[in-house]
């Protein structure tokens, strides 16, 4: 294990912040133009993103929006008995099309084809003013508004909720204070006990990580700051991935999927500044989500208040959020039906790898199919 020096890490952070601030000015004001010798896409991409197939092709409608926040409802393709809607809470990092990468490699397509009424919150690209929005606002306004809209459209009293990674944390927080609206809850690769290691815990360690320094420089947390931070810690994985790419140049099916995933990994969006700071402090640095010290608009977040059926899914090869970190969440949740499952694949691979489709997606579908009770006192949909 590498032992990082606090001063060294702080200096690297300062250098990265400074470079991200000044590089655009150097390019803008200098006589030398990078475009003279480089392609129009950034160095992270192995192929121009615009040359790749489109992503997010499962048909959908925008059923609610506020600013850059959109709520999608995916169009049904099969007639099936009425089920509670499924609301997917995606992370605030990257874009949600990893869940709808391409036909045949799409979690959302899989769920829709199996008769589920799927909704998804797309967080969009935050603007400068969003730096001041709080975690309270995201939970009690954005998510609650999306939940209410999905329930109103479908005529149901409760819905099933599914959160991935940071989205899983948001789902846990929401379910703890609005459990009356949740029929069942599923979280996937969601951070729990940060003392159990993992890249995210290391990256956000309060001994080394100063969110205020980044916020004072940028307002919102630049998506590239997070992406380059991941590359910096696991540089060997980047080289390994690219080696695999070149070894498979004659395998067009592999190359297409590989490039689509790489497109997603580098299609980074900024993270609202205050929300980022509050999330890091409450989940990783101070463990407030699990020690009962987190409040949302004055309401105490106690995971014991989650009484709906709960399943917590961990990835077997997750280097970002290790199994031991995720597993402990079940000890805090108060549900009588309280399930923990390990499924094949890595943190991101769960969305597209063949083994993940065969095992992980089937587990999610079986869970949702098991919890299909509809409130009989309300009609609609």
Describe this structure in words.
It is a single chain. The protein is an alpha/beta fold. The protein has a domain at 53-209 and 273-370: Rossmann fold (3-Layer(aba) Sandwich), CATH 3.40.50.1820. It has helices at 6-29, 107-113, 135-154, 166-177, 199-203, 211-218, 223-233, 235-247, 252-266, 273-285, 288-291, 323-327, 329-332, 354-370; strands at residues 60-66, 69-74, 86-89, 118-122, 159-164, 182-188, 295-296, 299-300, 310-315, 338-343. Strands 1-2-4-3-5-6-9-10 form an eight-stranded mixed sheet, with helices on both faces. Strand 3, helix 2 (107-113) and strand 4 (118-122) form a beta-alpha-beta unit. Helix 6 (211-218) runs antiparallel to helix 10 and helix 7 crosses helix 8. The longest helix has 24 residues, at 6-29. Mean pLDDT is 84; it is low at 26-39 and 376-381.
- CATH fold-level label of the domain at 53-209 and 273-370: Rossmann fold
Structural class: alpha/beta
CATH superfamily of the domain at 53-209 and 273-370: Alpha/Beta hydrolase fold, catalytic domain
Helicity, as a percent range: 40-55%
How far apart are the first and last residues' alpha carbons, in Å?
54 Å
With strands numbered from the N-terminus, the spatial order across the biggest sheet is: 1-2-4-3-5-6-9-10
Radius of gyration: 21 Å
CATH secondary-structure class of the domain at 53-209 and 273-370: Alpha Beta
Architecture (CATH level 2) name of the domain at 53-209 and 273-370: 3-Layer(aba) Sandwich
Give the amount of beta strand, in percent: 5-15%
Q: Mean of residue pLDDT?
A: 84
Order of helices and strands: HEEEHEHEHEHHHHHHHEEEHHEH
Number of strands: 10
Which ranges are low-confidence, i.e. pLDDT below 50, for 5 or more consecutive residues? 26-39, 376-381
Specify the biggest β-sheet: 8 strands, mixed
Specify the overall morphology: globular
Helical stretch tally: 14
């Amino acid at each position: 294990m590498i032992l990082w020096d606090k001063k060294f890490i702080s200096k690297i952070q300062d250098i990265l912040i400074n470079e991200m601030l000044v590089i655009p000015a150097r390019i803008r004001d200098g006589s030398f133009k990078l475009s003279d010798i480089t392609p129009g896409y950034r160095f992270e991409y192995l192929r121009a993103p615009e040359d790749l197939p489109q992503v997010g092709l499962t048909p959908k409608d925008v059923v609610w929006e506020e600013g850059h926040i959109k709520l999608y409802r995916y169009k049904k393709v099969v007639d099936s008995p009425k089920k509670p809607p499924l609301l997917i809470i995606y992370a605030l990092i990257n874009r949600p099309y990893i869940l709808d990468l391409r036909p045949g490699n799409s979690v959302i397509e899989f769920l829709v084809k199996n008769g589920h009424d799927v909704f998804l919150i797309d967080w969009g690209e935050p603007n400068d003013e969003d730096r001041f929005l709080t975690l309270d606002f995201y939970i009690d306004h954005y998510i609650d508004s999306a939940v209410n809209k999905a329930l109103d459209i479908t005529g149901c009293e409760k819905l099933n909720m599914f959160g991935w990674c940071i989205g899983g944390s948001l789902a846990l927080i929401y379910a703890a204070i609005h459990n009356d609206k949740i029929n069942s809850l599923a979280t996937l690769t969601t951070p729990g006990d940060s003392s159990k290691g993992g890249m995210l815990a290391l990256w956000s360690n309060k001994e080394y990580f100063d969110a205020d320094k980044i916020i004072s420089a940028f307002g919102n947390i630049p998506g590239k700051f997070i992406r380059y931070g991941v590359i910096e810690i696991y540089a060997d994985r980047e080289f390994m991935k690219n080696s695999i790419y070149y070894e498979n140049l004659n395998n067009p099916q592999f190359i297409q999927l590989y490039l689509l995933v790489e497109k997603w990994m580098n299609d980074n969006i900024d993270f609202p500044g205050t929300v980022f700071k509050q999330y890091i402090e409450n989940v990783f640095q101070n463990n407030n989500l699990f020690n009962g010290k987190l409040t949302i608009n004055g309401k105490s977040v106690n995971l014991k208040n989650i009484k709906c059926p709960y399943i917590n899914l961990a990835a077997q090869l997750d280097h970002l959020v290790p199994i031991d970190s995720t597993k402990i969440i079940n000890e805090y949740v108060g549900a009588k039906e309280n399930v923990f499952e390990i499924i094949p694949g890595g943190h991101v691979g769960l969305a597209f790898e063949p083994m993940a489709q065969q095992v992980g997606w089937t587990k999610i579908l079986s869970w949702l199919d098991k919890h299909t009770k509809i409130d009989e006192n309300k009609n609609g949909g």
